[in-house]
Design a protein that fits this description.
The protein is of the alpha/beta class and about 575 residues long. It is built from 21 helices and twelve strands. A hairpin with a 2-residue loop joins strand 11 and strand 12.
């Protein structure tokens, strides 16, 4: 798995190397101190040599100060390495999410992606910042302290041959249990984020239906599930300390017992036993460090796997390499079929054959679930066709670079999305280089000017998140104006005037009629929105029922005529 993250380590290679070197030398200087302390007791104190004691004391202080300075340098470079590692990884993961098609996004829910971009990467960052020190220091201290203790007393060092395997077995059993629990905990966090996000987005609906109590209960359930999974995981993680303490105290008791006997028979001096105990504590401390590293690695492995699931997700839609652009905007569906999942039993769209001339205005109508939105989403390759071919200007859509293709298609979806910022900033999503004259033109065409003049600061009026300080019709008109600023060759309006009154819709329709060289596709449930179109497509259950003008369909098509009669009766009523 480390190989997969190698390029992120390489980006911060200098910081990793410096911090590793600092930890190594810090541990070395700390390991010298017990030897100096033993010599002070056995030589300086035993011989009452004050100058020797002072000399060795200053040497201990010097080693301690060097160790402290190295520790400070480590903290700085390790923090920089961890933060830069996390930033680079987060950028790549976010970039990968941006490359996803709609079908890719169907594999991950939004809260899960947010958790993977924030919490999971933060766990890896903390592992580097907090784990690099014990990861390097632990083995160095253990090996060097063990070597020193063997040199001081091979007989007492045998205690470690018994203590270390016992601790190792305990830790292995803990780690084997805790890995799956961390995975369960992160999934519970996904669900918790999902409920919070859903509630905040739909807060007005919740309040209007007085469902706050129900939402509170839902949150309590997922919060309780997250709490339980966290308790289970950290319950086993906390067993690490008792196991360590049991082995540590048992080892110290054994060493004191056997060491006391060695002093009693004259095989060992008090200073040597004191130094040996210092090394024992360092060895056990290093084992504790290593066990904590394994705990961090266990959790970070779970997070790393979740991140790699996103990075390894194969992008369904890859653009062509030919530098072709949409010049005119003619569209050809040639026996196109489509389904959202390859494993689905039936197609959403079946055997669609359709030719649309450049510059035509085409209406699309049909009952709920007729796959009207699915049809137009294939044009900018938000989804790819399952079988058959879809061509624009005679070129298969797969031949176009995705950026060029989507730049030539202006699309206003059913769900109107505006971003935090000013009206001007939202409009310039369509064209960052748009002049004031172009902004005025787009707003006039989409009838935005009707309410823009009433805004406190005009174009520079701030919009709340999602444009909640605008009505549904105002948001729709802003989205239409934003799409017009692209000057697209193909303009798709997916039920984008459903929230405006008929008079305003008529003015928008008149403005769109002035566009030249733009192929316009209008999806609507209202006959009066599409009756002036050059052609109207009637969809039924993902198939084309009939294509014709308003008069022809009204005379011959039962579905179209039924919709017309129902809407006519509703208008009269």
């Amino acid at each position: 798995m480390l190989k997969r993250f190698r390029k992120y380590f390489i980006k911060t290679k200098k910081d990793f190397i410096i911090s590793t070197v600092c930890v190594s030398f810090e541990a070395t200087f700390e390991l010298i101190i017990p030897m100096i302390m033993a010599s002070i007791i056995d030589v300086g104190v035993a011989q009452r040599n004050k100058s020797y004691i002072l000399q060795r004391s200053f040497l201990m202080i010097f080693c301690s100060m060097i160790s402290l300075v190295l520790g400070l340098f480590y903290a700085r470079f390790a923090a920089r390495a961890g933060q830069r590692f996390g930033a680079a990884l987060r950028e790549d993961e976010y970039r990968k999410v941006q490359s996803f098609s709609f079908s890719n996004l169907d594999h991950f829910n939004t809260p899960s992606l947010i958790t993977r971009l924030t919490s999971d990467i933060t766990i890896l960052q903390n592992t580097i910042c907090n784990g690099l020190r014990p990861m390097v220091r632990g083995p160095i201290m253990m090996i060097m302290a063990l070597s020193m203790s063997i040199l001081m007393s091979p007989q007492l060092a045998i205690v470690f041959l018994i203590a270390m395997p016992i601790l190792g077995i305990c830790l292995f059993l803990i780690f084997r249990k805790i890995g799956p629990l961390y995975g369960k905990m992160q999934k519970a966090l996904d669900k918790l984020n999902s409920v919070v996000q859903e509630n905040l987005i739909a807060i007005r609906t919740v309040k209007s239906f007085v469902r706050g109590k129900n939402e509170n209960q839902k949150f309590e359930n997922v919060n309780g599930a997250f709490c339980n999974s966290s308790e289970q995981a950290f319950h086993y993680a906390s067993l690490n300390l008792p196991c360590f303490q049991f082995v540590m105290y048992a080892t110290i008791l054994c060493i004191l017992w056997f060491g006391g006997n060695l002093i009693h028979i004259g095989s060992m001096k008090v200073g040597a036993l004191t130094g040996f105990l210092s090394y024992v504590l360092q060895i056990l401390n290093s084992l504790m460090m290593i066990s904590n590293v394994f705990l961090m690695l266990s959790r970070s492995t779970t997070s790393a796997n979740r991140i790699l699931e996103v990075l390894d997700e194969p992008v369904d839609i890859v653009g062509g390499t030919e530098q072709v652009k949409v010049e005119h905007g003619s569209i050809d569906f040639d026996h196109v079929s489509f389904k959202y999942r390859k494993t689905a039993k039936r197609d959403v769209l079946s055997d669609i054959c359709l030719h649309i001339d450049a510059g035509q205005t085409v209406g699309i109508i049909g009952g709920t679930g007729a796959a009207k939105s699915s049809l137009v989403q294939l044009i900018p390759r938000l989804y790819d066709v399952g079988s058959g071919s879809l061509k624009i200007d005679g070129h298969d859509v797969r031949e176009y670079p995705v950026a060029y293709l989507r730049d030539a298609v202006g699309m206003v979806l059913q769900k109107n999305t505006l971003f935090s910022g000013t009206i001007r900033e939202n409009l310039k999503w369509g064209n960052p280089e748009a002049t004031q004259e172009e902004l005025d033109w787009a707003c006039r065409t989409a009838c935005v000017d009707e309410f823009l003049s009433r805004m406190p600061e005009g174009y520079d009026t701030d919009l709340s998140q999602g444009g909640v300080n605008l009505s549904g019709g105002q948001k729709q008109r802003l989205c239409i104006a934003r799409a017009l600023l692209k000057h697209p060759k193909i303009l798709i309006l997916d039920d984008s005037t459903s929230a405006v009154d008929t008079a305003t819709e008529a003015r928008i329709r008149a403005g769109l009629a002035q566009l030249r060289g733009t192929t316009i596709l209008i999806i609507s449930q209202r006959i009066n929105s599409i009756e002036h179109a050059d052609r109207i497509i009637v969809l039924e259950d993902g198939k084309i029922n009939e294509v014709g003008t308003h008069d022809i369909l009204l005379a011959h098509n039962r579905i179209y005529r039924d919709i017309y009669e129902i809407q006519k009766e509703g208008a009269i009523a």
